[in-house]
Amino acid sequence: MKKFRKVLDGLTTSSPGGTMGSPSCGSAAGTPTAAPTPKEIDVQETLVSENFQLCKTVRHGFPYQPTSLAFDPVQKILAIGSRSGGVRILGRPGVDCYCQHESGAAVLQLQFLINEGALVTACADDTLHLWNLRQRRPAVLHSLKFNRERITFCHLPFQSKWLYVGTERGNTHIVNIESFILSGYVIMWNKAIELSTKTHPGPVVHLSDSPKDEGKLLIGFEGGTIVQWDLRAKKADFRIYYDEAIHSVSWHHEGKQFMCSHSDGSLTLWTLRNTTKPFQVTFPHGKIQKDGRKESCKPILKVEYKTSRSSEPFVIFSGGLSYDKAGRRPALTIMHGKAITVLEMDYPIVEFMVLCETPYNNEVQDPYAVVVLLEKDLIVVDLTQSNFPVFENPYPMDIHESPVTCTAYFADCPPDIIPILYSIGAKNKKTGYSHKEWPIGGGTWTLGSHTYPEIIITGHADGSIKFWDASAFTLQMLYKLKTSKVFEKPKPGEGRAAELGEEDPFAVQMVSWCPHSRIFCVVGISAHIILYRFSKYDANTQIVSLEVRLQCEPEDIITPSENENNPCFSEPGSHSPQPHHQHPLSPGSRTPDGAKDSIPCLKVKDKMVRVPPGYQSDLVIQLLWVDGEPPQQITSLDLNSAYGLLAFGNCNGLAVVDYLQKTVILCISTLDLYGATDPYQRLTRSPRRNRQSTSEHCMRGLSNFYSDSKKRIRTSYQSLTELTDNQQSIDMERSKSPTSVHYPTSLHNDPRILPEPVASLRASHCSPVFYLLDNESRENSFSRSRSSSVSSIDRDTKEAITTLQFGESYGRKSDALPTPCLWVGTSLGVGILIPLSIPTDHEERMEDPVTVGPSGAVQMLKGSVLRFGFLDCNGALIQSPYEVWRDLNAPEDPDRTRRRKLVHFSPSSSQDAFGEGHLAVVCSERQAKVFLMPSQSCLFVHNITESSFVLRADVVSLCNSVCLACFCANGHVMTLSLPSLRPLMDVNYLPLTDMRIARTFCFTNEGQALYLSSPTEIQRITYSQEMCDNLQEMLGELFTPIETPEAQNRGFLKGFFGGNAHTFDREELFGEAAAGKASRSLAQHIPGQGGVEGMKVAASGAVGELARARIALDERGQRLGELEERTALMMTSAETFSKHAHELMLKCKDKKWYQF
């Protein structure tokens, strides 16, 4: 139970911020006002450290930089290895598992132990790993590190426990899968080739056992040598020497012939009857030229030779195209009989694999699909249809279709939003897919009990927005929105792209979404904002555009020469930005000196457009060029559907737009927000001498923007001067003196009227460039330079708007009831509260202006302000008010009015008496504070980090309570209790390795978070102990007990004359008794942690294991019953045979030999 006393309004004594857990009275002093009787407020904080645990849950998207592919034909699961050491295992939708090698070495090859629930990975650090897939979280059981040789190829025969490993030196080693120990049996390269050969054959590029005889191993060397090695006799049966380098080999299922692919784009077919020359040589894509020579072709990197019962064999290969066709895309070629089909791909082919009905290599293969792993996509081609259509991929492999630039995560959404988004998005789905079921259907997955609607929104570089259903650890695309359709297509050589070299003028910077009202807002890199409304009906609409001038005028700049005699005053109205409606200016509007002026970066479509059902643009807001300088990028955004307002800011100032009346109601510089309550003492300084440098750096390309943002994130917390609470109180007391003059209490919504203070006692201008007076002692202020070599006087600093939040609060200490307010946070750690006056009646709201009062409370924190949150005095989270969704395009219904229906969450609604107030949580890059409103008293302070800075902070609900979640640049994920700011969790999870993580990391309710782990993958994590405990239940099962299909009965004659007549005992050849021990220096065995983890998982999933045991017992009983029936039939048959034999003997007993 945390108890704290409400601080009296008007208490003027100030003190340094109290430590966590103890209330402090760091009040911003002001004019004493009447206050309610102090009352003891009890807040019971239910969250404790035991409620928190951090762990990864699931990874979505396409594996980044894939390298290898494997498929289990019985379990029907697919594995993909990547360059960073990751392994992705996919089954039916919902079965999606990610594993990571600790070494981070690239995965060269994958081999399933077919139907055994295990996987072997060969990595670039020459280590083999055995993964246990019989648990929901796979773990390494064994590892084997090769010390003297590099691994190049691996092969594991079906139902064998001996793995063949080829090396760069040309040797072949054999590993026991069960013990992961190297056998003493080695096939040395100099034994495999003839002694007379003078050159090294090269690395081993292929290993396979003969379908005809498991005791024969086919070894392919890169130099063109192929050897069939007799494992029993330990000698070569035959050797083939070919001029061209070999890339792959594939057997015919009868084992009498095999096919090779070569570096010159040829395919050679070899028969075992004659190995002196190839039976057939073909150049599938090499045409004969006029001079009689064949075209030179690219290497065929892989070929698969598969037979079919019902048709001609399939020959499928990648590569082999001719060199002379420039710009031709990578292709997969399917040769079926005389027909040749070339499937062009969007990306280079990394690997492909043909899926067959049988796991046995000596049976007719009957291929039914081919999995093609591309550099940035995964496709599966249906081989059973003549036109070879592709299957519709159920996995979200196209997250990176355009680079992801921002993310948003919403948990516990309204339940009706997902079905309606899906129904709208389904209308625009692609067609032409195969009608058959997705062939990778292994594993089991059930909907867990701890599920709720979740939506992830991704913004992309091409201006597109994707809504994803993220419920129950899955990801499925619901709806796609293209923001570029609002604008005219830029002509080549014109517009922002030509002026500034911008490749992605529509790139999305941030999004804001209200799921209840279904209003969606997008901020783009070209300093534009688009507001969308949702409708189930299509419509013809005229896009409304507002243009805002949030930039300084050239005559507004105050130079030392102009203000030499009067440095503390400026002309009224010379320092605030101005809003403008859309002007009839052409895109080429320029000032007399030729500089661009008063035009936006993009041109909005000015004609009626037909918009389909879904999100339809309602308003476009664009910042304007000013005197040849492009507008600054927008840094913060918030909208509120109940108020009908949208606020945004950048490093120049703040603008508030009434999107119901389509007017700008406030457009003001950051400096003017303070009025007379500015906590800093500032002096103006001369502007930049080189104005062009601003134009070069303000609006740059997307990649430059990210690198610049990275620099900003690293240093933005290093503001010029930070004040302690004591100094803050003194400055605020000074600024709130009775002699100060405030600007008017209302600002009209007419954009032509400039909102400004009546008087100001300091010189100021738009986009203020200033430095702070460092005239206080080191104890009361501490300056930190962005660079030790740069003086603070030489720095060019602007105070940007870093966060905005609408909500019901108390604009003044004297307010008895909460009113609509806008909380503004700046990059200098200042939190400003702006009260709003909004008409409540529906008709008045659409006609009367919204007025903005003077700024009220001003709070100070260390570092840029990142987040605001509001709690009632019982510690419960106060939601922002919203408007209930209504379809503006719906047909008119005379029985139902079209009035707005608003839902409010007043701070006083859950309390006994009005005037009780509420708690405001303010978090910055370095510090978190809790204030009591309306007294504006600082109750709790917590310094989050001293050595780093917070990148992301959110007030989130968890376990029917609320906490503050923070992600720091040093990789720490922290949670703090509210309101006491008591540390609950601090985990060193993920260092900030690149800007992508900082840009995309976001928290949401119910203990979940996500970030972009690579350019193509979304990693979801949880910081909830409850979710970690239930994780095993929510993840899919990779392994399902399935009986291995029986081999076909080959027939007596076929087995006797040409089949595999002799059983091959590998244990007898490769075991320690026969082959001895391998050299200890050759490879080192490393035991894995999978055994212990497997025991833990088995203990936690006892029910599942019992179910498997029951299934196994049932199968065993069924087999025993079948065996008993067979035995009975055999006994009956034997008795019948004995009876007939006895009768025949009696009949023939007395006959002579000549009577027969």
From TrEMBL:
It is a peripheral membrane protein. Its main location: membrane. It comes from Xiphophorus maculatus. The keyword Hydrolase does not apply. GO terms for cellular component: plasma membrane; SNARE complex. This is Syntaxin-binding protein 5-like. One of its GO terms (molecular function) is syntaxin binding. One of its GO terms (biological process) is exocytosis. Residues 737-748 have a biased composition (Polar residues). Belongs to the WD repeat L(2)GL family. Residues 1091-1151 form the V-SNARE coiled-coil homology domain. Keywords: Cell membrane, Coiled coil, Cytoplasm, Exocytosis, Membrane, Protein transport, Repeat, Transport, WD repeat. InterPro entries: Lethal2_giant, LLGL2, V_SNARE_CC, WD40/YVTN_repeat-like_dom_sf, WD40_repeat_dom_sf, WD40_rpt. Residues 10-37 have a biased composition (Low complexity). Residues 1-37, 561-597, 725-748 are annotated as: Disordered. It is found in: Cell membrane; Cytoplasm.
